[in-house]
């Protein structure tokens, strides 16, 4: 199901055709997220800019509330800088780490199953993870005790003790719909045998390679890393990559009422109550129309 998680919220609970870009090229060819949140263009510190002491025109002393917000923003940016998070496309080799991440973040009824991860990563190579590197015996690194370190892959063979630890993920497929429907979240039966004459999964279910709408099924951040801006950083990096790749015209998601404002700040627009009934319904359709400005 599409689940929505952002920093600060308590834990609740490939088939390519010739008409679309190669997904590996899309994710691997995009500019990497800056190691420092302070300098990354998609993570501006707007309040610091507003209070630039070198700008003598119209400068005024901030009130206490503004000062507190500036301080919190700077603390979050410092935390991200120390963490050195960076994005990497999710593949079938990341399934176990994604399962661990969902187990630590969502209640049982809201978790993506291992089979759905396998299906989504096999059929659509557009999902993105946020990682850091750590060793299991590094007592100064919080990542050394992360739930996902046991399933983490080594960074490179020359240092097998250093692991690539998954901190957050954005799991997606594509659809021909303009918003997310129940069928888009479904797992086609016998999908692994779809290439044989004996099996023909329902074409209305699951990923649609020809679709121009990216469906965000899961935005998850490890509980210990929530409240640090990691979810926002991941979403901004993801939007930038998909927008510059031209792989889709829009990104759609389902949100709870209390999360509408969070996604609105990222540019998503409310499209009304969703027709999706997963989990009892009550979702809000939100869509971000992309500018599709390729690199060049």
From TrEMBL:
N-acetyltransferase domain location, by residue?
A: 133-291
Q: Which superkingdom does the taxonomy of this entry point to?
A: Eukaryota
Keywords attached to this entry? Acyltransferase, Transferase
Q: Does the keyword Transferase apply?
A: yes
Alphabetized InterPro entries for the sequence:
Acyl_CoA_acyltransferase, GNAT_dom, SNAT-like
Keyword Metal-binding on this protein? no
Report what the protein is called: N-acetyltransferase domain-containing protein
Organism of provenance: Corymbia citriodora subsp. variegata
């Amino acid at each position: 199901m599409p689940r929505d998680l952002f920093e600060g919220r308590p834990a609740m609970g490939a088939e390519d055709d010739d008409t679309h870009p190669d997904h590996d090229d899309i994710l691997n060819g995009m500019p990497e997220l800056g190691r420092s949140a302070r300098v990354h263009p998609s993570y501006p510190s707007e309040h610091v800019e507003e209070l630039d002491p070198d700008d003598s025109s119209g400068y005024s002393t901030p009130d206490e509330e503004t000062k507190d917000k500036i301080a919190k923003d700077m603390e979050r940016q410092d935390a991200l800088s120390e963490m050195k998070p960076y994005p990497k496309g999710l593949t079938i080799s990341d399934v176990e780490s994604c399962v661990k991440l969902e187990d630590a973040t969502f209640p049982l009824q809201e978790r993506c199953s291992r089979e759905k991860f396998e299906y989504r990563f096999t059929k659509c190579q557009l999902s993105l993870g946020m990682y850091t590197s750590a060793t299991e015996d590094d007592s100064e690194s919080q990542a050394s005790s992360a739930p996902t370190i046991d399933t983490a892959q080594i960074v490179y063979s020359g240092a097998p003790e250093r692991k690539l630890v998954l901190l957050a993920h954005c799991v997606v497929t594509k659809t021909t719909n303009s918003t997310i429907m129940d069928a888009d979240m479904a797992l086609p039966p016998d999908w692994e045998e779809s290439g044989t004459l004996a099996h023909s999964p329902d074409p209305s279910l699951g990923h649609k390679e020809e679709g121009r709408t990216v469906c965000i099924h899961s935005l998850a951040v490890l509980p210990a890393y929530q409240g640090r801006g990691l979810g926002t950083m991941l979403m901004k990096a993801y939007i930038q990559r998909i927008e510059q790749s031209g792989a889709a015209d829009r990104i759609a998601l389902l949100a709870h009422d209390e999360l509408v404002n969070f996604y609105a700040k990222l540019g998503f627009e409310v499209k009304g109550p969703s027709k999706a009934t997963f989990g009892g319904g009550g979702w809000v359709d939100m869509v971000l129309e992309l500018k599709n400005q390729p690199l060049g």
